[in-house]
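User: Teach me something about this protein's shape.
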Amino acid sequence: MGLREIAAADLRIILEDLEGFAWPITISDPNQVSADLLGFSNDISQAIDPQTGQAIAGRFVSVALPIAALTAAGIGMPRGIADSSGKPWVVTFNDVFGNSGTWKVIQANPDRALGIVTCTLEVYKLP
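Assistant: First, the predicted structure itself:
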């Protein structure tokens, strides 16, 4: 087994281990087809301007999901929808306090070498 295969296997273990980093995430495509998956999520309430090093207003929210799980669920590859009148891909997950948030995918970055897609999100609906 090569290093790429070992890395992909390790990634699956990390993203599917509920006692580790895995977190329940629901993703829905524009046709409202949804899948409950395990993945990794970030919800950082402050971003740093890379040029000045200063904190700026806003949030950085993302999820990382295994491509194989998306394929197995029959949901396909998420993608950002630039047209605001179109239905977006939507992601829902809870924070560590149990508060649910719903986010729309604004960018999807698949890494086909490791079998993961990282989706950058923005607020769609909060409680």
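Now, about its shape. Strands lie at 23-28, 34-44, 47-48, 55-56, 60-66, 90-94, 100-111, 116-125. The two ends are 46 Å apart (CA to CA). If you'd like, I can walk through any region in more detail.
User: That's plenty for now, thanks!
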